[in-house]
Design brief:
This protein has about 60 residues and is an all-alpha fold. The protein has one domain. The chain is built from 3 helices and no strands. The longest helix is centred in the first third of the chain and has 23 residues, at about 5-25. It comes from Seleniivibrio woodruffii.
Length: about 60
């Protein structure tokens, strides 16, 4: 799996997980996680920088 694949997979999982936890526990704070992930995606679109991408590169994940 390449960095591009992981950069699509992780936010999707995080958002679905946070919504699932919100529905299971009815605690609104889980929606903050979804909002944080969404804001990070928005920020990375404008700045062309993503912390997860840097972490994956340092971990040795291939770039293809």
């Amino acid at each position: 799996m390449s960095i591009k694949d992981i950069l699509r997979l992780v936010p999707g999982i995080m958002i679905l997980l946070s919504i699932g936890l919100f529905l299971a526990t009815d605690q609104k704070w889980w929606l903050a996680l979804a909002a944080f992930v969404g804001l990070n995606l928005l920020q990375s679109a404008f700045t062309k920088w993503c912390l997860l991408e840097d972490i994956l590169r340092k971990a040795g994940i291939r770039e293809i």
